[in-house]
């Protein structure tokens, strides 16, 4: 799901996976006037692409040298961030046995080679329409309408899967908790409508500053936001947090009760630790402790969690 | 005797590419460029008794021939694939021998028409 308003088929992105250059060329040529296409020649590259780019649909060959399309489909379904990407198999055989394998692997459909262009285009169109409607429903459930950021429901429903992935693959996971400095005074001075506009600007600027689709912005409170950064260590999260402070300050939203005279934010950075035992609250509370320290240090700064801070916040 | 129409159904190939003549030409060029290497790989696999390798290569070539609506050649590679899948070396060898003349005539037809 992307943090943006509803799209059309032309805005959708299809990944074509086939080890044969001629097959990739044909499939891409048959679809390129309808939808944005990317191509790759192996299942393992397809998985990496899906993790990084999140296409709306995958057209997957079955027989490939490095890994079968069936196995790739199972792997995609097993990764939280790619599990919602539908896979249509483009298969050279439509025997009963092959059809069973496609469904067992988790494919949403299959098209037999050599492909009939009309059938291919209509199947792709149909599944993209379905995907867009699913995305829209998820947006309504999971997006905060005011800021466009994800809401707490998303945090509660999706984060366990993100944590599970990071633990399974022994990858880092970091959080940035930040809030707008002197926001109560801002609302008192400029009014709540202007306060909403400020929240909207800060949120959108933050989303544009997060460079990977897997990085998520969640509004956890009034003016408090959480950034979830999979596969990111503390140093990486610190760099992201410092970038956020810079770009938000550069918005130059006037705030006469701020020492900087413009809207600024304070941020706390913490890393998820395996000892958290999948307990989200522990990880977020460390980021909260760091944020508290950033506020204590005068705001408009980033603090990385350190165990020594525990005594300070208490 | 296989007729020219059984070697290459160009109209069907063009329909499969939504009437895009330039696309068809590019796919034919790719096929002509890749075929010798792919056929050689299949033959090498056969010589070393790697019937799984023969099966995979025949599957690939069957797919490429099917895309271009080359019915006789598609059938040949389907036969090789099936024999190799059964791990039947004599049948696979025989199917390969029957493929060579069909492939020669098919490539000639493609080169003449494109």
From TrEMBL, chain A:
Q: Name one GO molecular function term.
A: diguanylate cyclase activity
- UniProt xrefs under SMART domains: GGDEF, REC
According to its UniProt record, the EC number is: 2.7.7.65
Q: Where on the tree of life does the source sit, at the highest rank?
A: Bacteria
Q: Which UniProt keywords apply?
A: Nucleotidyltransferase, Phosphoprotein, Transferase
- The residue ranges of the GGDEF domain are 171-307
Q: CDD domains this protein is in?
A: GGDEF
Residues modified to 4-aspartylphosphate: 61
Q: Which reaction does it catalyse?
A: 2 GTP = 3',3'-c-di-GMP + 2 diphosphate
PROSITE patterns tied to this protein: GGDEF, RESPONSE_REGULATORY
Does Nucleotidyltransferase appear among the keywords?
yes
Q: Cite the Pfam families for this sequence.
A: GGDEF, Response_reg
Where is the Response regulatory domain positioned along the sequence?
13-128
Among InterPro entries, the record links this protein to: CheY-like_superfamily, Diguanylate_Cyclase, GGDEF_dom, Nucleotide_cyclase, Rev_trsase/Diguanyl_cyclase, Sig_transdc_resp-reg_receiver
The UniProt entry, under NCBIfam families, shows: GGDEF
Q: What is this protein called?
A: diguanylate cyclase
Q: Source species, please?
A: Alteromonas salexigens
State the taxonomy lineage: Bacteria, Pseudomonadati, Pseudomonadota, Gammaproteobacteria, Alteromonadales
Automatic annotation (TrEMBL), chain B:
HPt domain: from which residue to which, for each copy?
A: 20-114
Question: Keywords on this record?
Answer: Phosphoprotein, Two-component regulatory system
Which Pfam families would you find in this protein's record?
A: Hpt
Q: What InterPro entries does its record include?
A: HPT_dom_sf, Sig_transdc_His_kin_Hpt_dom
Positions carrying Phosphohistidine are 59
Q: Does the keyword Phosphoprotein apply?
A: yes
Q: Which domain of life is it from?
A: Bacteria
Keyword Magnesium attached: no
- Name this polypeptide is given: Hpt domain-containing protein
Protein species of origin: Alteromonas salexigens
């Amino acid at each position: 799901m992307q943090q943006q308003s509803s799209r059309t088929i032309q805005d959708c992105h299809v990944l074509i996976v086939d080890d044969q250059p001629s097959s990739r060329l044909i499939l891409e040529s048959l679809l390129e006037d309808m939808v944005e296409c990317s191509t790759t020649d192996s299942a393992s590259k397809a998985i990496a692409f899906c993790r990084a780019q999140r296409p709306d649909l995958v057209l997957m060959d079955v027989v490939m040298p490095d890994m079968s399309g069936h196995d790739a489909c199972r792997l995609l379904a097993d990764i939280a961030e790619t599990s919602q990407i539908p896979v249509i198999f483009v298969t050279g055989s439509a025997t009963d046995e092959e059809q069973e394998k496609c469904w067992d692997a988790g494919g949403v459909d299959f098209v037999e080679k050599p492909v009939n262009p009309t059938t291919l285009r209509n199947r792709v169109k149909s599944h993209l329409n379905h995907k867009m409607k699913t995305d829209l429903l998820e947006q309504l459930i999971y997006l905060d309408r005011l800021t466009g950021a994800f809401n707490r429901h998303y945090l509660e429903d999706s984060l366990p899967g993100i944590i599970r992935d990071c633990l399974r693959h022994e990858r880092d996971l970091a959080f940035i908790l930040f809030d707008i400095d002197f926001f109560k005074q801002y609302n008192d001075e400029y009014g709540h409508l202007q306060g909403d506009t400020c929240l909207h600007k800060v949120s959108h600027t933050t989303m544009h500053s997060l460079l990977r689709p897997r990085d998520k912005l969640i509004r956890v409170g009034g003016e408090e936001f959480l950034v979830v950064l999979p596969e990111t260590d503390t140093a990486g999260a610190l760099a992201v947090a410092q970038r956020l402070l810079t770009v938000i300050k550069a918005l130059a939203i006037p705030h006469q009760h701020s020492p900087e005279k413009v809207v600024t934010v304070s941020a706390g950075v913490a890393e998820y630790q395996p000892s958290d035992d999948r307990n989200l609250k522990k990880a977020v509370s460390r980021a909260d402790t760091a944020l508290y320290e950033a506020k204590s240090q005068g705001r408009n700064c980033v603090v990385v969690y350190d165990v020594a801070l525990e005594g300070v916040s208490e | 005797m296989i007729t020219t129409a059984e070697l290459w159904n160009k109209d069907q190939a063009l329909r499969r590419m939504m009437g895009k003549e330039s696309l068809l030409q590019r796919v034919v060029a790719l096929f002509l460029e890749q075929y010798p290497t792919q056929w050689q790989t299949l033959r090498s696999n056969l010589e070393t008794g790697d019937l799984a390798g023969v099966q995979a290569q025949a599957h690939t070539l069957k797919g490429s021939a099917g895309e271009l609506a080359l019915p006789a050649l598609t059938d040949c590679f389907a036969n090789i694939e099936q024999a190799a899948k059964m791990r039947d070396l004599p049948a696979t060898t025989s199917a390969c021998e029957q493929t060579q003349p069909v492939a020669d005539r098919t490539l000639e037809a493609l080169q003449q028409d494109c």
